Amino acid sequence: MSLRIRRYRWSDLEAVCALHQICLAQVGLAPGDGVWYDDDFPRINEVYLADRGEFLVGEAGGRVVAMGGLRRIDDEVAEMCRLRVHPEFQRQGYGARTVLSLEARAVELGYGRLLCDTTLNQCAAIGLYRKYGWREIRREERGGYVVLYWEKDLTSTMSVLPQ
């Protein structure tokens, strides 16, 4: 099934929130556990779109199965966040397509560097970041989880999806 990536619309809110919950539960996390939060979802337009950011959703079979956002940190740096792929659609390249779309959009928006984080138990995300040239910069314990922080310099390397 092919993935169509597009910009978030307000009508996606329920599907985006559900996808977030499903993906967190898959790796044993829950909003409010000291690591994750979800107060930005009702404010996607404000937090992401209106402040030189982006929020993308991926549709397959008429439903939202992937998502990810870019949140402005400063004039040069953005944070890639909310990267999620529904468990039924994982291992099909949807995460890679979403990351690459967000990286390309960050370049279009004029950012030179991206940051992101994930927990140690999110093995698929860790593998994806390593595969596409992200560099782990530190780890810390938060809420009983080990959080890994990553960065990617967009001025020297851009990821490309393998053929």
Core attributes:
163 residues, alpha+beta, 7-stranded mixed sheet, globular
Fold and architecture overview:
The chain has 163 residues and is of the alpha+beta class. Helix content is 26%, strand content 33%. Strands 1-2-3-4-5-7-6 form a seven-stranded mixed beta sheet, with helices on both faces. Strand 4, helix 3 and strand 5 (113-119) form a beta-alpha-beta unit.
Class derived from helix and strand content: alpha+beta
> How many strands appear in the DSSP assignment?
7
H/I helix tally: 4
Summarize the main sheet. Answer: 7 strands, mixed
Q: What is the alpha-carbon Rg in Å?
A: 15 Å
Global geometry? globular
Order of helices and strands: EHHEEEHEHEE
Q: Give the N-terminus to C-terminus distance in angstroms.
A: 17 Å
Strand order of the largest sheet: 1-2-3-4-5-7-6
- Average pLDDT, rounded to a whole number, is 89
As residue ranges, the low-confidence spans are none
Helix fraction bin: 25-40%
What is the beta-strand fraction? 25-35%
Short description:
The chain is of the alpha+beta class and 163 residues long.
Strand-helix topology:
Elements: E1 4-7, H1 13-26, H2 44-47, E2 54-60, E3 63-72, E4 77-85, H3 94-108, E5 113-119, H4 123-131, E6 135-142, E7 145-153
Parallel strand pairs: 4-5
Antiparallel strand pairs: 1-2, 2-3, 3-4, 5-7, 6-7
